[in-house]
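Slack export, channel: ligand-projects

TW: morning all. Re-posting the request from yesterday since it got buried. We need the structure predicted with the small molecule present, not the apo form. The ligand is adenosine-5'-triphosphate; the SMILES is in the block with the sequence. No rush, but it would help planning for next week.
GE: picking it up
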Amino acid sequence: MAAALILAVTLTAVAVAALVVRRSLVARLEGVLSRLAPEPVDTAEIPDARSALQAVLAALESRAEAGAEQLAEARASMSRSAGAIEAIPQGVVICDESGREMFRNQAAVAYVRGRHGEAVVEQAVQEQFHAVEGGEPQRRTLEIYGPPRRVLVLSAFPLGDGERVGGAVVVVDDVSERRRLEAIRRDFVANISHELKTPVGALGLLADTIAAENDAAVVRRLAERMTGEAFRVGRIIDDLLDLSRIEAEESATRASVPVHVVVTEAIERVRPLAQARGISLDSDEVLRSHTVNGDQRQLVSAVANLLDNACKYSDGGSTVEVRSWDDGDFVEIEVRDHGIGIPGRDLERVFERFYRVDRARSRETGGTGLGLAIVRHVATNHEGDVRVASREGDGSVFTLRLLAGSRPATNGLTGTSRRKFRAEMS
Ligand SMILES: Nc1ncnc2c1ncn2[C@@H]1O[C@H](COP(=O)(O)OP(=O)(O)OP(=O)(O)O)[C@@H](O)[C@H]1O
Ligand SMILES: [Mg+2]
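GE: finished. pasting the full token output, ligand included:
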């Protein structure tokens, strides 16, 4: 009897203990569930530990699925960002808060692998990482004296959540070309202003003098000088328009243009000058079979500028010769004069805008110093080049090298004889 009582009490105690354990398990599972489940859970609807466990498992599964999706999205977004950073031309280096490098795009890889100049950039990048530790963005301009001479702007930005610095990014921007173009533009504007100021100033003075002059002969002489100065302003503006048009047409329109057509048109343009100076133009050695691949208007402008110079910088009575050669891939057009020539020290510079060997003489001849800049631009637009050989007192040879166009003739016939041939056939 006593034994039965003890057994009953023990069983009851075990049952109570099991109930307590299950309740606390259910309570814990409910707690976990309320944290995991995406929506609030009504715990009254969970009758026992088994249901609670199932609900927790279901919540875990849905979390795991959502987590996997988020991870995939995060990976895709990271690879998009990395791809974008890779695509930009600036160098980008990213470090974590301990200064450990986390990312470096291809443009910035050059700094660690490169030679002296690049090593200087890499050192500056590391210094920027230190500089930004205080949490403030930093900017620094680095000049590398080269060659080639380069100007780089290094910008460093702290990364983080606004309160804590979580690393930094350094961006290296090579602004050399931009700076060079800005300097050219500045010089260009200064030069134009200077070039225009002189004739415009002269026009003002001449007009004042005329206003106070009664002598008809003097007035006529002054008026002629005014015409000359006005003509000079017009020429400068024409040259500038020509140059800016040719510069704007970055790549010339292409067609097969016969060289003799270009040369004939260019000669027509300079004929009045040549006649006025008694200079004969000889283009017998420009072969009709030679063609170049390019824009006729630009090509005529280039050859006319070379002929204009050849006439302007030669003594009256001399001869200017134009020839052409074709080596299959390229055609060369040569303009040779027997004039004053160009000193060796100026040869490199004559193609610069506004550069003139002898300013005083150029004023006499009305030159602005834009002609050869136009010629060089035309050559560049045609993937060709222009070179000069000259000796002071002996004369100059300018050679324009251009891509050959398609050959106009079969059987080696010239343009004229081919036309005759067709006429005979028809
Ligand atoms: N055939 C040449 N013989 C001697 N000097 C030349 C010859 N061609 C050019 N030069 C020199 O080079 C300079 C630059 O030539 P460019 O044609 O650019 O300018 P310009 O003839 O002075 O003016 P523009 O052509 O604008 O009217 C000239 O001022 C001249 O000093
Ligand atoms: Mg000229």
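GE: first-pass observations. Confidence is low (pLDDT under 50) at residues 410-426. Residues 2 and 352 are 123 Å apart (CA to CA).
TW: perfect, thank you
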